[in-house]
Amino acid sequence: MSKEDESLHKKLWRWETVSLAILVLGMASLGLIVGINYVWEEEIQDFIVVDAATDLRNDLTSFHLWFEEYINGDDTIDPEKNRELFVRVKKLARALLTGGKTQSGFVLRPLDDPQLREKAAALNTLLDSLEDRGVVRLREKSVSRSGSPNDQAFDKIFGEIISLATEIEDSMEKDIVRSMHQFQRLYLVILVVWAVIISGTTVGVGALSQRRRRSIHALRESQEMFQSLVNSTEDSIYLVDAECNYLFVNKRHLNRLGLTDSSLTGRNYEDFHTPEETAEFRKRIDRVISTRESAQYEHQSLRDGRHFLQTFSPVMDPDGRISAVTVVSKNISERRQMENDLRALSLTDELTGLYNRRGFFTLAAQQLKIANRMNKKLCLLLADLDDLKVINDTFGHHEGDSALVETANILRESFRESDIIARIGGDEFVVMPIEMTDDRAAMILERLNQGFEKGNEKNRLRYRISISTGITMFDPAMPAAIEEMLKQADDAMYEQKRLKKLGQGQPRNGLPQDEPS
User: Fold this and answer.
1) How much is the pTM?
2) Which residue of 38, 109, 434, 444 has the lowest C-beta tally within 10 Å?
């Protein structure tokens, strides 16, 4: 073999080797793209499950609110429409186990994760129990008001269903975040593969140029799909390094910051946030990097007051080192507002701002459980505004409302913020001080009486405000239900009223006094 033939043979061998390597790399990259498309189809189901769980929670919350209003006598509520809303909730819950369509028209496949299926099965069982309990409450509407055993059981089942639906939603959202991280790493691999291919073609492999162009087009389509995914979400998604410099920002977050392009990339978090927000953000980034684990935090923006659920997740390089942190910020302002509104509607007295009867029974039951568990005593004070009817008849109901509000204000000033203070009837108030002993009861009553004396002197009303009180103690050695404690305090209070009426020279509430000089 001549030297020229040997040289040609070596060139052909190198060309064939390079061509084969490029072919293998190209096929591998295309395989990755096909795999990503398949995984993406699977991840769409995660978004559909989140959508279904969110709709389930929202519809069930609306049903619960309308049902309570209907039970409490609101005749404007259409029970048939509310029933249809509950049927829709049960349909969504069944779809999590058997498959079906969501309210948005998406096809929902049955959950395949054993733990999530177990939660979905428990959710369906609880919905059946809620329906049964609701039927009983409708049948016994006249006696099944707020605070009744049926009402408490109904609310407990409702809370457990909301909790399960939230757990399913949070679990799927975590899967979505993890998939985004996987997609990012896969795209980095694809970019490296095509860098090798392009380098090979520049050496002289002209025969593969057409395949190279087709592969680049496929890569661009994949990148556009990824960009479309990240930019179409309603959540803010951004990537920062250990120094809190922005590495990537999606369009949603750019819009939140009032920017129209990607000029944010490369700049620092502190350039757009207050020192307090920046300090807290750095702590969270450092914690994720040190623990190498994802973490979630609730955050209220000082810019617009909205609430967000932020998920911080580490991004690992091929060597296992953390190269960046991904932040997914989900707007939960509407959910937080809805929760606050529902809590206020169900637990707060509209006139005084104190807890109402339901709020008192809910919180007091929890304190009794704690007292039982820790073997501690609790005090319950029942107070009745004296002669409210006389005030209403003499000065008008508006003045009676003012007397109730003033009584509530004096109770707030006389007790600690952590104590449970509620208005449980027209002129009845109840207080459950936290960690109060027998020897402190007399001191509390004295301070309460002084509060009313000061209030009467300060406001200089045409009548005096006073209360009658009754006190009872909860002893873990001889536990009593809240209703029994209220009965005991009520008996003590009416004994005090009787003694007041027998007393001499004691001014009674609601009677006009001498005008101040």
Assistant:
1) 0.37
2) 38
